[in-house]
Amino acid sequence: MAVLGSDSRRWSGLLLIFVFLCSFITPVVTVKHENFKKCDQSGFCKRNRAYADAALSTSSWQAPYSLDPASIKFDNGMLTGSVVKTIVNTAETVRLPLTIAFYESGTARVTLDEERRQKGDIVLRHDSKAKKQRYNEAEKWAIVGGTTLSQGAATSKGAEKGTTNISYGPAGTFEAVIRHSPFGIDFKRNGETQIQFNNRGLLNVEHWRPKVEKPVEEKKEGEEAVVGESAKDTEEDEGTWWDESFGGSTDSKPKGPEAVALDISFPNYQHVFGVAEHAGPLSLKETRGGDGKYSEPYRLYNSDVFEYEMDSPMTLYGAIPFMQAQKKDSTVGVFWLNAAETWIDITKSSSSTNPLSLGIGSKITTNTHWISESGLLDVFIFLGPKPQDVVGAYTELTGYTQLPQQFAIAYHQCRWNYVTDEDVRDVDRKFDKNRIPYDVIWLDIEYTEGKKYFTWDPDTFANPLGMEKQLDEHERKLVAIIDPHIKNEGNYPVVDELKSKDLAVHNKDGNIYEGWCWPGSSHWVDCFNPAAHTWWKSLFRYDKFKGTAKNTWIWNDMNEPSVFNGPETTMPKDNLHHGGWEHRDVHNINGMTFQNATYHAILARDKEEDKANVRPFVLTRSFYSGSQRLGAMWTGDNQAAWPHLEASIPMLLSMGISGFPFAGADVGGFFGNPSKELLTRWYQAGAFYPFFRGHAHIDTRRREPYLAGEPYTQIITQALRLRYSLLPAWYTAFHEAHTNGAPILRPNYYVHPGDEKGFAIDDQFYVGSTGLLAKPVTTEGADGVDIYLADKEKYFDYFDYWMYEGPTTVSLAASLDTIPLLMQGGHIIPRRDRPRRSSGLMRYDPFTLVVVIGNSGDAEGTLYLDDGESFDYEEGAFIHRRFEYKSATSTLMSEDLAAASASPSRKTKDYLKAMEKVRVEKVIVVGAPESWKSKKEVEVSEELAGKSSGTKSAELEWHGKEEGKAAWAVVRDPGIQIGAGWKISFA
Ligand SMILES: *[C@@H]1O[C@H](CO)[C@@H](O)[C@H](O)[C@H]1NC(C)=O
Ligand SMILES: *[C@@H]1O[C@H](CO)[C@@H](O)[C@H](O)[C@H]1NC(C)=O
């Protein structure tokens, strides 16, 4: 490499100016719309929108579905019956078996299937190998609990003719009023209707039917021969029933039309949230056009959307068909369990109770219309009333988020690509040299030999074990990418086995499917096949995936799946998976099964080979309801542009309320080069992403934090240190999510469900239950932000204890080196303030407790702590404390939240023993009472193993009120253990 001469220095100066201009004018590139379907290019979506338009345009619309009263049975918390569909313009009917299950949790579930008719009754394409049945296995992958039938659910006696009423839920306060004809259900809480099914009559189950070959109409000059078009008014548009083309590929539809659709209304609910993943506001927009509204429905069809656009209902990489509706003091929700392509239309209507009110006091009702291409109609209903009741019930069904290893919630350094093992070692050394903490370094696809997973490029990564060993010296980890496409090339044992064991996805003819991805021609492992899991496990063994060590973890990308030459950059829908299911039926679950296979492979690697009991770490791009059980997700290929930084906050909030809080966005932006200001602001925001990773595209300049130069590097390092010092609070929030599904980033509506003014706020959030309220700066050149405080409570600036009081909106200065962060009164926040190179090195560091005294004078908080890596916590090896400050007695105490066991396991004893030396080194009381002013000491008593160790005193340091700021006090080294019971008296 040539050293730069004076000439080239001048050039580099010019280059800098050029770069500056470029970063200034870098346009936000936008998605190729033509590569992705709009509703009217997706036959079943177009048909169902047309159906809705027809139904809603006439007041005499009669929905052609009724529940046969003679078929109704109710037993043991479950109603069964038969819904009869009358086929328009014929006398024919189709029977749709109905079940309505009432679970102990208070969740109800409505399922409509289609009666399997006799062989020969339906005519499928003779050559089709697809299973001739509606897909009914989404539940098998997504649901893991919460389905115990309620013994308390009961039909009300003497129900009027025409309805069947079931009371259920807590103390029987929920009710399902099932209307027989037309079939529909109103869900009530305390007598008030919260959710309505089919009240607009849009229920539509496209029944199976034989394919009738119609004579091709004589094509007249200048006319297009479109099948079905001629009988437009009376008949359905049949043009896409039996095959459908888009972007040059044709989808054969061996089962014909089989969509399911339903209108779900939320009367008097103004806001709906959820149906992740979309790049748009948290509060979902209306979708049928008009000012500030979308004209396309929200779409869920997991896709690799290159250069995705902002503020859009377009589909992205993952799908969580769970929606919550919010009105004052009430949250309800629905979960649409279907893995096929799904579209959701949202409209709002307002009704004024008083015509003279000029809109004041008018009620908004949110109407939704759900449309899926195939499968069952299967919907879960949650009646709240609190946000956590809904999220908790949803996650009881789909599983709680994995409790990650501690390193996984620290900082990750990624780039496409670190090009050699020496490059990795060099980056590692430079972080240390610059005293910047990080835990994990990542390898994108280039580490492999020719994009063959489970291999290393022998020229560039000759010594992966040596590299991993260096990382391990500071307890750092490596994450390597493994994707689901397997290179189709000779002399590659992985593809040979995939083929010989027949574990790949098949095409519609039943042969191995071949498509293009990073390696060129590839095959895709079919993780719906249990045998594929067994095989996949074998590949990760240390002796099989040579060059990996115990600190190697995995990244699963491209698992939508992304297929470069496939329709909409994915697999053809008529591909076949294990069991004969079409890809169309399982598409949105595909990514989850792949991440799951990897999760179990890593588990087996360490358990079976090593007897180690460690928690796997697997990052996924594609996901579905339930993926939260398996690891983290990120929002895919974003751009180094301010709107993408801004959008990351509502996107992550949406993931959090959808039961999948372990989420992040690429810090810095994947495509393009961020300005230093943008990079810095992005790190400050990223310090509040549950999953915190810097990543960059192969065509971008290097941007490791130490390259930013001053003052940027210093400011970025501060943001990283803030994250590391708050790791105990983050880990406690993850533990909470792991036990009850609570979001980690909490939007205003979740924390203050009675405050209507805050429902749409999605640019600020609380962190877990800590009372930390953050509002990252996401605009260029900003020197301040406004933060909305919803409650009548004191809030304190995290850094200088400046005091604010809600309810109001406050302005905070936020120069480039400042992260707007407040502490809500009434909380106790655990921290570890000693700067270390990695989180692993903090294991035995002492704690700081920040007691934030608000209007009540009291404060409380929790701390969850374990070894941060193994499953030993499941056997009791953890510390779980509750801290409480009571103003009445002026005491701060620590009590045990772990149910004390008479005979603790050996692991528990070992863990607690190891933690015995871990102290509380500092207690900071913010908003300390003036009466402590002249106090010099506090009294400390500790209880160890049930025995009081007597009392001792510790010094109290007083800091009086300054203009605008709160008084605060510090107790230094009170001589207490974090894991013990203790009391500090300030009286
Ligand atoms: C069933 O619910 C409907 C609607 O609330 C009500 O009109 C009807 O009286 C109820 N029937 C019984 C028997 O509770
Ligand atoms: C995950 O894998 C396990 C073990 O192979 C299997 O039992 C389970 O059904 C799988 N779940 C998902 C979501 O793929």
UniProtKB/TrEMBL annotation:
Enzyme class: hydrolase
Any single Pfam family the record assigns to this protein: DUF5110
Domain DUF5110: 848-892
The keyword Endoplasmic reticulum appears for this protein: yes
UniProt KW keywords: Endoplasmic reticulum, Glycoprotein, Glycosidase, Hydrolase, Signal
Gene Ontology annotations of biological process type: carbohydrate metabolic process; N-glycan processing
Compositionally biased spans, kind Basic and acidic residues: 214-223
Chief subcellular location: endoplasmic reticulum
Subcellular location field: Endoplasmic reticulum
Chain segments carrying region Disordered: 214-254
Enzymatic reactions: Hydrolysis of terminal, non-reducing (1->4)-linked alpha-D-glucose residues with release of alpha-D-glucose
EC number: 3.2.1.20
SUPFAM superfamilies linked: (Trans)glycosidases, Galactose mutarotase-like, Glycosyl hydrolase domain
Pathway, per record: Glycan metabolism; N-glycan metabolism
Homology family: Belongs to the glycosyl hydrolase 31 family.
PANTHER family: ALPHA-GLUCOSIDASE (PTHR22762), BCDNA.GH04962 (PTHR22762:SF54)
Protein name per its UniProtKB record: alpha-glucosidase
Annotated source species: Recurvomyces mirabilis
